[in-house]
Specification:
Elements: H1 2-13, H2 20-33, H3 37-45, H4 47-55, H5 62-75, H6 81-88, H7 92-100, H8 107-117, H9 121-128, H10 144-152, H11 164-172, H12 176-182, H13 189-193, H14 203-216, H15 223-227, H16 233-238, H17 249-254, H18 272-285, H19 289-297, H20 300-313, H21 317-331
Protein name: Protein HGH1 homolog
Domain Protein HGH1 N-terminal: 99-275
InterPro entries: ARM-like, ARM-type_fold, Hgh1, Protein_HGH1_C, Protein_HGH1_N
Length: 350
């Protein structure tokens, strides 16, 4: 086809040695076709073209490098990207280096690309397999602890926010081995993430961290520890869900300290998807008998009751439904003996 011919011709203009203006025009043309599935297929079918794009991430001209990264961001949303970028060309070591380079203007693009590539389980597994603290026999490229450390240092990179790392953590925490790592009591990795649940500067950060913590809540064996004094997770999940409603002294005294007597201008988390994730996390913490007892004892019910009313008044039906399910657990009697763990007990067919 004409497109295939054109793409073969483009390769000669996408060399590091090509004159700047010609090279920039060529990579901009390539970027333009990555917006469509046909365009992306064309690139994945043309090895030389894909290799030229990857090579241009090391060009000496910032504008060319930037366009090359944008092209890869679009390509990484495609189903064929995992096999090409993670398996065949193994971009991970290089991209992790860029993410960890506090001077790099391309760290956010590299984060975005890895985020896209780890959405599905296959990509997440390929990336986790290269992280030395998840798999000790992995090459010593970089550790998950290093990524967590630079993420928690706000303004680590003056040119990039690294907010997309939150989504990468969320994708990686689909894997049991990553959840186990985050929940290791010796490292308290999960504790370092908690302040970002109320981080005003970035919705991406709040959402990714909320999803990571929610995924960790599937590990019911760790519930007593994450609800205990050392991590004290419950108030961190409840605070973004609380509004400015006033409670009587009796109700206030039963709430966790951080939720007592909130100011009249207290606002809830603005994003409905994040509110759903936070409610889901609390619901998961109610899976075990001891977890339910603790969540009920902390008067979670009054926060959820007010949230349910507020969501209903604002026609946020999706959030109200998730909220209602949690309220049901909080006001119900304990399940029968042998069915106390809601994550492991069999669900009847009816």
């Amino acid at each position: 086809t004409i497109m295939e011919e054109a793409s073969k011709e483009l390769v000669q203009f996408l060399q590091l040695s090509t004159r700047f203006e010609v090279k920039l025009q060529a990579i901009q043309n390539v970027l333009a076709i990555t917006g469509s599935p046909e365009g992306r297929k064309l690139i994945f079918d043309n090895t030389q073209l894909l290799e030229s794009i990857l090579a241009l991430t090391k060009d000496t001209h910032h504008t060319v490098v930037n366009e090359a990264y944008l092209t890869l961001v679009n390509l990484s949303t495609d189903g064929r990207a995992v096999a090409a970028l993670l398996k065949k060309y193994d971009i991970l070591p290089e991209f992790l280096k860029i993410i960890c380079d506090s001077e790099s203007p391309y760290s956010d693009k590299a984060c975005g690309i890895l985020n896209n590539l780890t959405r599905e389980l296959e990509g997440a597994k390929l990336v986790a397999a290269k992280l030395n603290d998840i798999y000790p026999d992995a090459p010593k490229t970089v550790k998950l602890s290093k990524l967590l450390e630079i993420f928690c240092k706000v303004d680590y990179n003056k040119k990039c926010s690294l907010d997309y790392l939150a989504a990468l953590f969320s994708n990686l925490s689909q894997l049991p081995e990553v959840r186990q790592y985050l929940l290791k009591q010796s490292s308290s990795s999960i504790k370092a993430l908690l302040p970002f649940l109320t981080y005003k500067r970035s919705l991406k950060r709040r959402g990714g961290v909320a999803a990571t913590i929610r995924n960790c809540c599937f590990v019911y064996e760790s519930h007593d520890w994450i609800l205990g004094e050392e991590i004290d997770l419950l108030p961190h999940l409840l605070l973004p869900l609380a509004g400015s409603e006033e409670f009587d002294d009796d109700d206030n005294d039963k709430l966790p300290l951080d939720l007592q007597y909130l100011p009249p201008d207290k606002e809830r988390e603005e994003d409905p998807d994040i509110r759903i994730i936070l409610i889901e996390a609390i619901t998961l913490l109610c899976a075990t008998k001891s977890g339910r007892a603790y969540v009920k004892d902390k008067n979670t019910y009054v926060i959820m009751r007010e949230l349910y009313r507020w969501e209903s008044d604002n026609n946020n039906d999706d959030v109200a439904d998730v909220c209602e399910r949690l309220v049901q657990i909080l006001i119900s009697d304990e399940p029968d003996e042998g069915r106390e763990n809601l994550l492991t007990c069999p669900i009847p067919d009816e």
